[in-house]
Amino acid sequence: MERINLFKQKSLIILKSIVIFLFYIILQLLLNKRIKTNSMLFLNIQEIIVGIIIMLIIGALMKDTLKESLKNFKKNKKENIKIALKFWLIGFLAMIIANFFINYIFFKGQLATNEIQNREIFNKLPIYCTFAFLIYSPFVEELIFRATYKKAFKNIYIYTIVSGLIFGLLHIISAFSINDISTNWSQILYIFPYGFMGAMFGYIYFKTNCIFNTMIVHFLHNCIALATILFPLIIGG
Predict the structure, then answer these.
(1) Which has the closest alpha carbon to 133: 1, 227, 16?
(2) What is the pTM of this model?
(3) Of 100, 95, 102, 30, the residue nearest 225 (C-alpha)
(4) What span, in angstroms and rounded, lies between the C-alpha atoms of 197 and 90?
(5) Cα separation of 171 and 180, whole Å?
(6) What does the longest C-alpha to C-alpha distance in the chain come to?
(7) How many CA atoms lie within 13 A of 231 on its CB side?
(8) What is the average pLDDT across 57-66?
(9) How many domains does the chain have?
(10) Pair 138, 218: CB distance under 8 Å
(11) With contact defined as beta carbons under 8 Å apart, do 85 and 217 qualify?
(12) Which range marks the domain in which residue 67 is found?
């Protein structure tokens, strides 16, 4: 009976996470109708407003997780940040090594489609992209793709692997929305660098039970990612 109840609880948690994810997709589609304008400033502001609306709604749906995480963060801020930075650094180094092998050993000079898209969007909507990189993504992605299903797992290592796979898949799926998989199959390899980072985010969250820790290191990671986009533009004039 206890096993059946446990199975029901886990099933409900997973179902809830799927529902929230689908709601997130539907919400984006509903808010996808933009006011047509030639003003780039207006377009940037418009996208930011849409992002803030989504953040508020997702935040309201996940308010219990946010309250619990805030309580845990306040208990031991220094230890939380120490753990978060330590395991983020491990994930970051693993990501660099994986990218090195993919970019310079297997497929010389090839970037991940996700990174190419980010650079293209930044060129068009720099203000919005800065907001998305530093505020929107750390908040929304950590709540939806990390926090919603965490309680369905009792084992930190299984959760870490699942978290890495989900994060990795979400960051390479854009490659196959543009080109046929048969001509873009090498992009599958990028599941490893993104997956390593996602796994460490998951490990941090499970170990500290505080989603703010992963939001902080996600923000830090995206600061570096944003710098890699800005630096060539600055140098190039």
Answers:
(1) 227
(2) 0.87
(3) 95
(4) 8
(5) 16
(6) 68
(7) 6
(8) 93
(9) 1
(10) yes
(11) yes
(12) 2-235
3-state helix/strand/coil string of the chain: CHHHHHHHHHHHHHHHHHHHHHHHHHHHHHCCCCCCCCCHHHHHHHHHHHHHHHHHHHHHHCHHHHHHHHHHHHHCHHHHHHHHHHHHHHHHHHHHHHHHHHHHHHCCCCCCHHHHHHHHHHHHCHHHHHHHHHHHHHHHHHHHHHHCCHHHCCCHHHHHHHHHHHHHHHHHHHHHHHCCCCCCHHHHHHHHHHHHHHHHHHHHHHHHCCHHHHHHHHHHHHHHHHHHHHHHHHHCC
**Mean confidence (pLDDT) of the chain:** 85
Tens digit of each residue's pLDDT (9 = 90 or more) over 166-204 = 998 888 876 665 555 555 667 788 889 999 999 999 999
Please report, to the nearest 10 degrees, the dihedral formed by the alpha carbons of residues 186, 192, 195, 200 taken in order: -160
User: pLDDT tens digits for 158-172?
Assistant: 999 999 999 988 888
Distance, CA of 175 to CA of 180 (rounded, Å): 9
Q: How many whole angstroms separate alpha carbon 162 and alpha carbon 140?
A: 18
